[in-house]
Amino acid sequence: MESPDVESIRKDFPILSTKTSHGKQLVYLDSAATSQKPVQVIDAVSDYYRTYNANIHRGLYDISARATEEYRRSKELVAEFISAGSYNEIVYTRNTTESINLVALSWAERNMKKGDVILTTQMEHHSNIVPWQMLARRKGAVLEYAKLKGNAVLDMEDYGKKLEKRPRLVAFTHVSNVLGTVNDAKKLTEMAHDAGATVVIDAAQSVPHMEIDVGRIGCDFMAFSSHKMLGPAGIGVLYGKEDILEKMEPLFGGGDMIRSVRFDSCTWNELPWKFEAGTSNVEGGIGLGAAVEYLDRIGISRIRQHEIDMTRYALGRLDGLDGVAVYGIGKKDMTDSNRAGVVSFNIKGAHAHDVAEIFNSEGIAIRAGHHCAMPLVNEVLGEPSVARMSFYLYTKKEEVDKAIEAIAKVRKVLRLEDAR
Ligand code: C6P
């Protein structure tokens, strides 16, 4: 597949030509935390504020009608992007976290009871652990974690064994934000359905980076965030199968989510509006729509291929570096389908926070810490923290090279030569 033209893509991202406080060219290797935004998204939000800022679903005048139409259109774009049946299945929330909590507080609250099992995995972000722990506490349900194999991939045998407990709900991440491991979402979903479970997929790290077809995967719910896919922060998506969303109760009550209200009763609005109480994040929706159009124009499969290339290149350059531990699937086991553009590492003798600070002095933005996956980082990998670089459509090989050079600088500054 033809690679995207990274140099011309980079011209769309104003931030990538800025310098950091150290006078260095910004090298942004933290797209798993949040992506940068192209001018097309910035302009779409600015255009809304400048030319048709109005509340939606309310005004009987031109600019409100236009805002309403653009907001609705963004849902159509998102629905098409993940091959949902229609935009009725696209509920806007604040982020992935809120989307998962919506499932926990609405669907699970009504459909789960004492003793029911919730199955998740050991490679989850806190967003896909804490809501289930809270639910388990409220309901007296039991939370189980499928183990990892070789600290890198899901142990399918253990997953299968835990499914024998016939969980009511299975919640797993499509891509780990620490290991970069890509789970086989379709297979995990099929197995969970065979065991009678409802399936929630945390797709925060997959929807921005790879082709997603919710119909093919077959999941019941999928959660993701706009800010990780070139769109604005403060808006996220909960995809839900229409028949399931229809049966669910709204989480919040108020304006816009109702059809009619009397002093003694009310009825709900149709999907997806029944889950969106109060004034919406209109600019967020419009920006997300522009982000999806941008991703579509470049082509998500080409973006995925570029990230595979960057990841292979980074793993190759890290391979064999003295005193550097790399987490997740290694270079020799990496295939075109099992790893995403997230590479976590540690330098022996250096705390990951020191590593990130020294990288910063070179203008390189990476993340260090537990990455909101404390059970995975602390209890499975046995590390207090890890450093992480992550890639996107605008990442260049030269930037990976700079990161590799920065590793040498870390060793020099911290005088680690003797620690080999
Ligand atoms: N991970 C990272 O640096 P929100 O914050 O709701 O937009 O996304 C939460 C979330 C859920 N699942 C996965 C797999 C994630 O990676 C994230 C966000 C960021 O890794 C911030 S902690």
CATH topology of the largest domain: Aspartate Aminotransferase, domain 2
Largest beta-sheet characterization: 7 strands, mixed
Bound small molecules, by name, code or SMILES, are: ligand C6P
Give the tally of β-strands: 17
Task: Classify the beta-strand content into a percent band.
Answer: 15-25%
The whole-angstrom Rg is 22 Å
Q: How many helices does DSSP assign?
A: 14
Helical fraction equals: 25-40%
CATH classification, class level of the largest domain: Alpha Beta
Identify the overall geometry. Answer: globular
Structural class: alpha/beta
The CATH superfamily label of the largest domain reads: Type I PLP-dependent aspartate aminotransferase-like (Major domain)
Mean pLDDT: 97
- How many domain regions? 2
- Residue stretches low in confidence (pLDDT < 50, at least 5 long) are none
Strand order, main sheet: write it out.
2-10-9-8-7-3-4
CATH architecture label name of the largest domain: 3-Layer(aba) Sandwich
Terminal Cα separation, in Å? 41 Å
Which helices and strands appear, and what pairs or packs with what?
Elements: H1 6-10, E1 27-28, H2 39-51, H3 62-81, E2 90-93, H4 96-111, E3 117-121, H5 130-139, E4 142-146, E5 148-149, E6 153-154, H6 156-163, E7 169-173, H7 185-194, E8 198-202, H8 214-217, E9 221-225, E10 236-240, H9 242-247, E11 258-262, E12 265-268, H10 282-298, H11 300-318, E13 324-326, E14 342-347, H12 352-361, E15 364-365, E16 367-369, H13 374-380, E17 386-390, H14 397-413
Parallel strand pairs: 1-15, 3-4, 3-7, 7-8, 8-9
Antiparallel strand pairs: 2-10, 5-6, 9-10, 11-12, 13-14, 14-17, 16-17
Residues 32-33, 95-97, 125, 127, 173, 177, 202, 204-205, 225, 367, 371-372 line the site of ligand C6P.
